[in-house]
Amino acid sequence: MAYLEITLTVQESQRAAAAGIYEQYKQPFLDTIPGAVSKELLVRDEDVQVLHGFVTADQARAYLDSDLFTEDVVGGLAPLLSADPEVRIYETA
Question: How many other CB atoms sit within 10 Å of the CB of residue 83?
Fold first, then answer.
């Protein structure tokens, strides 16, 4: 199992819009991205994190190059971000 964690700096006033993008693309992510098994939105006072579950780390890396991510998700989120996102990939032992 592997996880792709994307941390987003979003002003509190923009969080509802960011959550809307998460909801809009959650099911297409699960239905069309190879190896995708889960997607969770984690909201904290200081940021918003999206945790994606994959079968392998290679599939997580491939998602970052997919049209769904680069065009749809990034395109929708870009105007809402206060800073560049932090992207990390983790593998379970």
Answer: 10
Q: Alpha helices of 1-93 — where are they, by DSSP H?
A: 15-32, 57-63, 67, 74-77
Predicted TM-score (pTM) of this structure:
0.93
Which tokens sit at 64? 């970052």
Q: Is 39 exposed, middle or buried (0-12, 13-18, 19+ CB in 10 A)?
A: middle
Amino acid sitting at position 5: E
Other C-beta atoms lying within 10 Å of the C-beta of residue 53: 17
Domain that holds residue 36: 2-91
Q: What is the CATH number of the domain that holds 63?
A: 3.30.70.100
In sequence order, what are the beta bridge partners of 87? 6
| Domain count along the chain | 1
Running along the chain, 93 residues long, what does each successive block of 10 average in pLDDT?
96 92 96 98 91 98 97 94 95 93
